[in-house]
Write a sequence for this structure.
């Protein structure tokens, strides 16, 4: 087929050339001569001008072979002059099928970080030209960026991080930082240009402004009555729209006797239930998402129970960072450590009160995953100086939308309330007065309810940098005007025209103070020194823009 196509193409070229020559000379070609020419066989090495002969295809297989040896074998197969630089030490592993010499050389060079340069008579293989990048990080840590770049390093590429900056705000009377590194963290990357382009993309992805989450937390204490022994029934709160609701334990029931049939066992455990006679209120830890204003929930709760707000903190935290707030007290107590030779006493503290610890995770679709740990505790030191602590706490993981409120209930605690009573006057008498006074202890049961509302804080991007004209600063504008006047006075036609054009183009955003320069412009520029038509035309454009701007501001 190839031998047939080539004579046909050659025939078409010859006929076209013959027609062109015939048109120019007016002589038609001899058909017999053309037929005899086409009948002659073509030489084996013949190829049309501009087309390369059929190249030999390469099939090559290597496993951890030195690049010098790889190109030596390709050189023998293709009879091409290939020179490898002596500093090349890479090895190649791979399988090449049906490739031209150029394709094989390019593939080996790409996989080993080398570069092939065609020098005409030979091809020179050397390490790829390297460059460097210095990234000044704003948000990411340098050591974290380097740890991501290291698996991507090719031969000859390096990545280094600056010294970790000082962190923490611990107080010290003897140390103020000294000469510790306090500048922005930087990463220096060197390597081939192809690797540097990949590093650009990685650093741009890692060093982004972190998002922030504002968490509004409300911790409530609800005093339970006898009818609310199992806690507040949120379903009974009127006017509250719960979008999602769940409990960790289902409603209790009073069971009656009965047998379990074989068919129920075949259907699974869920079908093996006894008959029930009456329902009991649900109990256990409860959680639900409130759709709407939290104030509606609080007003509805106050109508059915005696509720008080223990704490209402609002915390702003960076994405994936820990936030904590503690409203309470720290009681100190002594601890003694005894060894064979000495004993050491230290002071430790027990924290009590209302405490909230959380960590937000913002997803790409706008959802917020909250790891949250609310805690309410009471405690102190007993008469022996030992610490004690009573706490109601929960640790949970919640997925919320921006602005949704989750209500977590079912945290119970009991307090012993003492009420003293006495008979007036008689109860205050010594010795016999104790017969006329007494103390009544009662147990108060409370439920702790935690309301959490996260908000994503998306800061608007900084406005683009504006020129001096847009900023409306009179001083640089005045300097341009005076410079223009001097150039006009000196006869600088081109310079004056360029400066005036720049001023006219920048007048759009100039603020009101620049209008005070109008008189100075007229005195400096509208004078006998500026008589050339081009300067007068630009000057008129400048004054018209000033008039229009003054009317817009007024």
């Amino acid at each position: 087929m190839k031998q047939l196509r080539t004579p046909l193409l050659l025939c078409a070229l010859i006929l076209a050339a013959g027609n062109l020559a015939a048109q120019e000379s007016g002589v038609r070609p001899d058909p017999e001569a053309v037929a005899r020419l086409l009948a002659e066989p073509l030489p084996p090495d013949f190829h049309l001008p501009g087309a390369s002969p059929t190249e030999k295809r390469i099939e090559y297989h290597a496993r951890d072979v030195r690049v010098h040896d790889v190109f030596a074998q390709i050189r023998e197969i293709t009879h091409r002059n290939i020179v490898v630089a002596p500093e090349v030490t890479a090895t190649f592993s791979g399988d090449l099928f049906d490739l031209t010499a150029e394709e094989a050389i390019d593939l080996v060079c790409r996989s080993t970080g080398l570069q092939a340069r065609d020098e005409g008579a030979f091809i020179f293989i050397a390490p790829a030209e390297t460059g460097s990048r210095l990234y000044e990080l704003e948000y990411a840590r340098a050591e974290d960026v380097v740890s991501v770049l290291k698996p991507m390093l090719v031969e000859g590429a390096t990545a280094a991080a600056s010294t970790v900056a000082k962190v923490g705000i611990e107080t010290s009377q003897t140390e103020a930082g000294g000469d510790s590194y306090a500048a922005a963290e930087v990463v220096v990357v060197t390597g081939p240009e192809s690797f540097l382009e990949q590093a650009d993309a990685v650093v741009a992805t890692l060093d982004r402004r972190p998002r922030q989450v504002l968490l509004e937390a409300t911790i409530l204490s609800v005093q339970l009555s006898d009818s609310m022994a199992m806690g507040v029934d949120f379903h009974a709160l009127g006017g509250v729209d719960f979008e999602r609701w769940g409990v960790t334990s289902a409603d209790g029931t009073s069971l009656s006797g009965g047998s379990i049939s074989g068919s129920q066992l075949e259907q699974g455990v869920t079908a093996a239930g006894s008959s029930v006679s009456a329902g009991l209120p649900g109990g256990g830890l409860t959680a639900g998402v409130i759709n709407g204003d939290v104030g509606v929930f609080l007003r509805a709760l106050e109508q059915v129970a005696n509720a008080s707000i223990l704490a209402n903190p609002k915390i702003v935290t960076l994405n994936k960072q820990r936030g904590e707030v503690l409203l309470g007290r720290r009681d100190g107590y002594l601890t003694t450590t005894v060894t064979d030779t000495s004993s050491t006493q230290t002071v430790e503290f027990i924290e009590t009160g209302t405490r909230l610890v959380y960590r937000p995770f913002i997803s790409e679709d706008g959802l917020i995953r909250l790891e949250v740990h609310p805690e309410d505790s009471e405690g102190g030191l007993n008469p022996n100086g030992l610490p004690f602590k009573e706490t109601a706490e929960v640790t949970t993981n919640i997925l919320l939308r921006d602005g949704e409120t989750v209500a977590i209930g079912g945290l119970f605690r009991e307090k012993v309330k003492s009420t003293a009573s006495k008979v007036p006057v008689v109860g205050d008498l010594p010795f016999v007065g104790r017969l006329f006074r007494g103390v009544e202890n009662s147990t108060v049961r409370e439920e702790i309810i935690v309301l959490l509302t996260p908000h994503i804080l998306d800061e608007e991007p900084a406005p683009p940098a504006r020129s001096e004209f847009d900023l409306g600063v009179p001083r640089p504008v005045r300097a341009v005007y005076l410079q223009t006047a001097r150039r006009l006075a000196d006869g600088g036609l081109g310079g004056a025209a360029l400066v005036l054009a720049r001023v006219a183009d920048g007048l759009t955003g100039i603020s009101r103070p620049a209008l005070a320069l109008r008189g100075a412009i007229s005195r400096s520029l509208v004078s006998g020194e500026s008589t050339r038509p081009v300067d007068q035309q630009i000057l008129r454009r400048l004054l018209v823009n000033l008039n229009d701007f003054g009317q817009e501001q007024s």
Notes: The chain is about 30% helix and 35% strand.
